[in-house]
Amino acid sequence: MPATTSRSAPEERLVNLVVALMATEQGLTKETILSSVAGYREQLEAGASKDALEKMFERDKENLRGLGIPIETIGERADPDDLREARYRVPTAEYALPEDISFSPAEIALLNIAGDVWGTESLSADARSGLRKIRALGIPVDEPIIGYAPRIRVRDASFPAFQRAIEECRVVTFSYLRPGEPRPRERRIRPLALVEYEARWHVFGFDLTMDADRTFLLPRVVGDVTLTREKFPSALRVGAGERALAGLAEVADRQRALLEVHPGTEASLRLARRALPAPQGVVVPYVDLHVFADELASYGPEVRVVEPSSLRDEVIRRLEATLVLHGGAA
After folding, report:
1. pTM value?
2. How far apart are CA 247 and CA 253, in angstroms?
3. Residue 311 in 3-state DSSP?
């Protein structure tokens, strides 16, 4: 029977990489990572070129840093600028709590439950296998890793297909439904980058139909993403993520909502990281009116939209629809 190889989902590969980089203080070389960490190891054994895997590793590092995970690069002691044999690690000290933070008994109980879940689920069989290989090389490894969960949230179903298409430089087609349109429209793009903005994932690429750069919100992708045989130069990906984020930030800077938010609520906690203080409440920039209206409506009475009126009307419409759905119960 011919040997079969399993292709790890990109998010699984990222988790395995974080686990490996946090498990050693001295750091891991790129060669050790590619030969030991699940997601790279299988592809290396299947005959993938070292150059392709190294490029994948560089993109993964960029994605993790974009999620707020500090990957440290350690050069040679004699010459710190010499990165030919660089080692990589995630310094666990970055996640030590400040001394002035304390928790109530109820909060500690909830944290213990979360820690138990992470303790049993964070180290998958693939991750443990990778750590065993790293330990066999004589590199000290801390296991289990408890108390740190990487900020890799559950993503939209289309994420893995777009990630694979970007890695392989392949044109994709998919159906995309914009608000107010009766049916989705077929899109054909060169996908260049996946970026997270306002806690939502977007794919940025060159729309071959519109002959222009476009950014698409992943939750609006309808059905499957099809990878075609048509390819494009990998050089087109260079700087694509930065261009996408700059474009989204520019849109958000033009669209700002004035909100009144009850302190100490979920809405207050979630909106605080992107809110600016205002005399009447807070000002929050946003990219998409309909997506932001969905979020604000989910907070119920915790938030009130002062302006713009278009956003306020959309939030009210969603709340009224919810009331009707539940039979008008107060």
Report:
1. 0.52
2. 10
3. helix
